[in-house]
Specification:
265 residues; mainly alpha; Arc Repressor Mutant, subunit A; 2 domains; three-stranded antiparallel sheet; 10 helices; flat
Length: 265
């Protein structure tokens, strides 16, 4: 695993230590992991342990008070380092770094949530409440209309009304269908039974109503899907002819479906 070049080129005197404020030993470990650009799931304990102890020694040299949890973490890292250096036995199972990784992940999640709450608190502090103080003595406050900007008042009123209209749109009115797909299916099939060949586009011109036209096209497609009729077109964009298909059209099933729909409604 590759480490930070600053650490790799430190030389015999050891890496340079930059002291900063850390809230705890896990915070210091997360700082070292980010600094060395390594994965939290595959921590190089040997190098991280050395860097951690360098920070501890630097804090002691500056007469900074080193808390007990920092020293405890230093001892734990030394223990992990020794386990990784010694040959593993068959009785040992799992990665000795697993518990450390779990603690670091939990601490990182808590730290990120704390940062989000801190940002939200900063935003809340920047929001000032309305500076209108209600009169508690019950007396009516006289408003000096000469100091009122009528143009600003009108613009504010329009803005409020626009916001109200966008937040309270008018209810949608769903109109009942005037045409039935099943009725149009019967109509198309009867025309084909009489004429044997029906031009769909020419038949469409008899129905100028857009809603009826849509229902007519859907009915034709449904008959084609059922195999009751066939559609033919000799060249692209030419007339579409409808003729009987290879399956009989069962009008009784449509009447049964219509009755069931009528009973359900």
């Amino acid at each position: 695993m590759e480490l930070n070049p600053d650490f790799a080129d430190a030389g015999p005197l050891g890496p340079s230590v930059e002291l900063a404020f850390f809230s705890g030993p896990l915070d210091l470990l997360l700082h070292l992991i980010r600094k060395n650009e390594v994965s939290i799931y595959d921590i190089p304990i040997l190098s991280i342990c050395d860097q951690y102890h360098d920070h501890i020694r630097a804090m002691q040299e500056l007469d900074l008070e080193v808390a007990g949890d920092f020293l405890w973490m230093a001892a734990w890292l030394l223990q992990l380092k020794s386990k990784l250096l010694l040959p593993r036995t068959e009785t040992e199972e799992g990665d000795p770094r697993e518990e450390l990784v779990e603690r670091l992940l939990a601490y990182r999640m808590v730290k990120e949530m704390a940062s989000i709450l801190h940002d939200k608190d900063l935003v809340r502090q920047c929001i000032w409440p309305a500076g209108i103080v209600a009169s508690l003595d019950g007396e009516d406050v006289e408003l000096d209309w000469e100091e009122v900007d009528l143009q600003l008042l009108a613009e504010t009123y329009l803005t409020v009304m626009q916001r109200f209209a966008s937040a309270h749109p008018p209810p949608l009115e769903v109109l009942p269908l005037r045409y039935s797909v099943h009725d149009k299916m019967r109509e198309i099939y009867r025309l084909i039974a009489e004429d044997d060949l029906v031009p769909l586009m020419r038949h469409r011109q008899r129905h100028p109503d857009p809603e009826e036209l849509v229902v007519l096209i859907v009915a034709a497609l449904e008959l084609i899907r059922l195999g009751a009729i066939q559609a033919e077109q000799r060249v692209p964009f030419a007339e579409i002819y409808l003729r009987k298909g290879h399956r009989p059209f069962d009008e009784a099933s449509l009447e049964k479906t219509d009755r069931e729909d009528a009973d359900a409604s």
